Amino acid sequence: MEQLLPGVYHWTSFHQGIGERVHSYYLSCVTPAVLIDPRVPDEGLGVFAGHPPPRHALLTNRHHYRHSDAFQDAYGLSVWCHRAGLHEFSEYEPVQPFEHGDELPGTVLALEVGVLCPEETAFFIPCDAGILALGDAIVRRDHALGFVPDELMGEDPGAVKDGLVSVFSRYLNRRFDHLLLAHGEPIVGGAKEALRHFLGQPAGPAE
Fold first, then answer.
1. pLDDT digit string (tens) for 91-132?
2. What is the C-alpha to C-alpha distance for residues 181 and 144, in angstroms, rounded to an integer?
3. Where is 2: in which H helix or E strand?
4. Is the overall model pTM greater than 0.70, yes or no?
5. Residue 100 and residue 80: Cα distance in Å, rounded?
6. Contact call for residues 38 and 63 (beta carbons, < 8 A)
7. Domains annotated on the chain, with CATH
8. Peptide bond just before 6 cis, omega within 30 deg
């Protein structure tokens, strides 16, 4: 687990289901501390010793429950997913619902993405210069932002991409400088301009 910013930690672990390493985050810069799309670090839960215990796990979509149950067992935390994704979970996977636009624990704001799936959510975290956390909507490969492969976008990948460009172009009005990605290395500093460039949007006014 590495510290990206004060109170913002990141790690990767191998996801056998998709055959690649994926990314998880722990935020103690908010109160109470939260996890985003958590898997247990390779070093085990001992890496959280000396840190405020995570009290909530926030899922960007229903597929990112990952190892939330291990954190529930260890810390008694609550897991949150958008209401539209709750059908994914069994009675043995207690998950709290939220709606897009809700303020979640830690003053994290749930922003609507949808498009890929109804529950797809981005999280705005009011730490440092502002942080945007993304699930499957935008990924990063070889240091470049991109979309998931067309075969994962349904019958009309072009329409899905246009929808995602429209959604994230609106969020360029928010104040943020960092991106936390479920698939790909995070961007610390300059993230808004990287996202703007990827979306093909003109440069905005200086902040």
1. 999 999 999 999 999 999 999 999 999 999 999 999 999 999
2. 12
3. strand 2-5
4. yes
5. 12
6. no
7. 2-199 (3.60.15.10)
8. no
